[in-house]
Specification:
mainly alpha, about 0% strand, DNA-binding
Length: about 230
DNA sequence: CGCCAGGGCCATA
DNA sequence: TATGGCCATGGC
């Protein structure tokens, strides 16, 4: 038996589960104040470094990278040197190249977040996705946490949590993303917190795939239609 | 020891 | 469209 997340009329209360989950998590954990970085550029680097890696490894890499943590310096850094610095994050050759690819794009905006923000949202997402090494999740992290655009980030944690709660999951990234976005206010702050809260919840209690019967979130989700 | 983490690309069918 | 191999470190 599975629960359906996104069936029915989107204007009925039956279709507000994503927002109910958000509300529960926010009340349980409080505001998270993400992304864990002290500058926009650090968020950009972190977004790439965290690909399929634990955050602890990103912190190690970031510590080594911090003396060079400005766009101009990273842009100047030889690929081999960059790879050496970010080694603890794993996949360091790939990621060094991906950072370089990203820098080529960012340079077109004169390393200015304000410049990028002038761009149309849809176009901006497409531009980011056109960079080799920037996939949908990484693009959405940048859109949300750097450029303040309200998007739902579909990561392994989000999939795992919704899966564990018994939802019949959309397979496609954008399908899942848009289904959730439809249920939340188009507010960057809400999406910012939601993603952070899902990560927090995942690290807290939802640490493995098998279904959890104790999670308090289940009582919220059980109000849903059964299939 | 083996498993896997806040992915993404590319080749193949 | 959908898998599978690949990239690589460090914690458990």
């Amino acid at each position: 038996m599975k629960y359906r997340l996104f069936d029915g009329d989107e204007h009925t209360h039956m279709n507000k589960n994503a927002y109910d989950i958000y509300t529960y998590l926010f009340n349980a954990y409080g505001p998270q104040g993400w992304w864990p970085a002290s500058s926009d550029f650090e968020i950009m680097m972190g977004a790439i470094l965290v690909q399929n890696t634990k955050w602890l490894q990103v912190e190690r890499a970031m510590t080594r990278l911090r003396p060079y943590l400005t766009p101009v310096q990273i842009d100047r850094l030889p690929m081999e040197e960059l790879a050496r610095l970010i080694r603890p994050s794993g996949f360091y050759n790939m990621k060094a190249k991906r950072i370089k690819n990203f820098m080529v794009w960012y340079k077109r905006y004169h390393f200015s977040v304000a410049e990028v923000k002038k761009r149309d949202r849809q176009l901006l997402r497409e531009e980011l996705l056109a960079i080799n090494g920037i996939g949908k999740e990484t693009a959405d992290v940048l859109l949300l946490y750097v450029f303040g655009i309200p998007v739902f980030i579909v990561d392994a944690y989000a999939r795992r949590i919704f899966e564990r709660l018994g939802f019949d999951m959309p397979k496609q990234y954008d399908t899942f993303r848009m289904d959730v976005e439809r249920q939340l206010p188009k507010d960057a702050t809400v999406h910012n917190e939601f993603h952070a809260l899902l990560v927090e919840h995942a690290k807290d209690v939802c640490t493995s795939v098998p279904r959890c019967h104790k999670c308090p979130l289940l009582s919220i989700c059980e109000q849903r239609i059964r299939t």
